[in-house]
Amino acid sequence: MRSYQVLIIGSGFGGQCAAINLLKEGITDFLLLERRNFFGGTWCQNTYPGAAVDVPSPLYSLSFAAYDWSRMFAGQEELHRYTRHVIERFALQDKVQLSANVQRVAWDDIARHWIVDTASLETFHAQFLINATGPLSQPVIPDFEGRDRFQGKTFHTNDWDHTYDYRHKRVAIVGSGASAAQVIPAIAPEVAHLHVFQRTPHWVLPRRDRTFNRLERWLLSLAPMRTLLRWSIYWQFETRVIAFKYSRPAVRMVQRQALNMLERQVPDPVLRRRLTPDYLIGCKRVILSSTLYPALCRANVSVHGQEHGIAALDETGIITRDGQHIPLDLIIWSTGFDATDGVISYPVTGRNGTRLHDVWAQYPRAYLGTSLPDFPNLFIVTGPNTGIGHTSALFIIESQMNYILDCIRTLNRQNLRSIEVQPAAEQRYTEMIHREMQRTVWKSGGCHSWYQSKSGHVVAMFPGFSFTYHYLTRRLRLADHILS
């Protein structure tokens, strides 16, 4: 049994940001627990062809860890290098335990600390627990009839098998969201035939990517220029909330731009109809790609809509709903993650035996998306309603750290052991979130997306400007909490 003041579960950007902020606070008694055998999170795990960020790189980076980006939208390899840069710059490799898959956590009411059990039968104790596993870490694969019968190769985009050569093979990709939109253009020219199975089409806008030239990279090495570019991108992206929440005419104007792009790039009217969504833009995640539509128009690519979707699998391929049998060598599952109801994958037991599973039975909820009544000293990075559909998730993560560090700092300063949010404060916050959500395109845009829980509540997104969330988290509100 090993004891720490703080345990951080997960080593992606959320875990790294938490660790660095602890170091800045002078707290060194902490450990990151990483279930995989490598340190780094999303951009070390997701290595599928075409993987890249959909937020401009100068904004998709930690404010205190600048980087010499080569292009506007960094690819996975450069994002991996940036991750390593952050880890090495702050010597975080000395603060992590790999292959530490957390099985359960429980609050000890008497000792007033968290007990963390791992699959390797090792147990840890900690006064504070920061869950930074992220909402996009639990892959989902639909349980199609006969899925286990297929004798070809299968894998999820989250776990791409680079030992398998897909070139000149008959390939199906199931799903048409953000990951699929990156994989399809990357592999379509190399496969014999690519079958794309989409449940619903997505809205697509151009991806205005470009390589920075030598002069631009030199200019961006200067802190004032880098800061100017970062904030100009931030405020440009922040205006998107006006369309997502406050102005349906603005939504329809952006939607018209997407339709114009669809009409320009997809000349076949039948395929164009199949790729035209029937909901407002923004209701589902908007895809940024200038290469997806041309790839879908290739002669060796077939797009199967919902009416021609998957009925079952057999030993050699997919059987569609209209009775067609499609022989395949490879099936790629690009079917997303359990980002709402399964945001924390392991059992969590709080004060007086309160189970998080029961508290979240209707839908996940948390004060500032971060803390919960009856779960002292527990903080959830990128928890319920902290997702952001228009800007960098790292801005939200850094905002959360203001609140989390203020909680820890306050207890340390007052020589107290625990802090938890008042039930009434969490209730008020949650009611405000879902009241504001009614006005957003995510709630009333006419679609069902992964932003929603099984209950229909939108639990992935924050219903407003990111600077509003930053304001809410800027400091601890003592009146909303119980300290002891």
Automatic annotation (TrEMBL):
Gene3D superfamilies: FAD/NAD(P)-binding domain (3.50.50.60). It holds the Pfam family Pyr_redox_3. Coiled coil: none annotated. One of its GO terms (molecular function) is monooxygenase activity. It comes from the Bacteria. Keywords: Monooxygenase, Oxidoreductase. PANTHER family: FAD_NAD(P)-BINDING DOMAIN-CONTAINING PROTEIN-RELATED, L-ORNITHINE N(5)-MONOOXYGENASE-RELATED. This is Monooxygenase. The lineage of its organism: Bacteria, Pseudomonadati, Pseudomonadota, Gammaproteobacteria, Pseudomonadales.
